[in-house]
Amino acid sequence: MLLILRCLILSVMLILAFVIGGLACILRPRHRDNVHMFAKVFSWAAPVLGIKVIVRNSEKQSQKPCIFLANHQNNFDMFTHTAVVPKGTVSLGKKSLAWMPLFGQIYWLSGNILIDRKNRSKAFDTMAATARKIKEKCLSVWIFPEGTRSRGKGLLPFKAGAFYTAIAAGVPMVPVLASNQGHIKLNRWNNGVVIIEMMDPIETTGIDKTQVKELSKRIHTMMSEKLSQLNQEASALMAKAV
Fold it and tell me: Where does the record place the Phospholipid/glycerol acyltransferase domain (predicted)?
C-alpha cells in the first residue's frame, strides 16, 4: 500500500514539475537558473520518500564558476543531490537523454549540456565548448565524473573529461558527496538519513593538462575517504533512530 501511495504522490509531483517547469523553460529557454529551479522542486520529494537529507557546507558553494564533482549512485540522486544545486549551474548528461519523451526535451531546454560519450572526438568538442560556456556565461557545471551509477559499489574510477574541462576553463573543482543510498526502498516507511556534504574547492590554476591523471587520482582519494566517513556517520544516525 505504501509503495502504491508513494508512487502516486511522486508521479503527481513530477508531472506538476514537468508541466510548470516546462512552461517556464519555454518562456526562458536555456536560462542559467532553470536547472536550479527543477533541482529545488525535485529535492522536495525526499521527505515523501521517507528520506531525511542532511546538508553540510552548502555555504561553501563557490561564488564564481566552478565544476561540481558529484558521486552518482542511483535514481535517488534526483531527490538527494538536488538539495545543494546552486543557481547558475547546469549539468552534463549523456546525449541519449534527449530522446526520452518529455524529459529529454525539458532537460535540453533547461540549459543542460549533452555529450556523446560513444564518440570520442565529439565528446572532446563538447567538453571544449563547455569550457567556453563556463568562461563566457559564468556558469558552473555539475558533473558525475564516474560516468555511470555506482549502485552501492563505492566510488568508481573517474573519467578524465571533467578535469580537462576545469583546467581549460581555469575554474576550481568542488567535490559533492552523498552518503550511501542503497538502503532506500519505496515500500519502507522510514528510509533513514542521507548526508550531502560539499567539500572545499580545489583550485586548478597553474595545473597543466599533463597533470590530469595525478589530479584525478588525488581528488578520487579525497572523495573516497570522505564518502567512507559519511557512510559511517549516516549509519550511526540511522542506528540511533531505530
Answer: 66-181
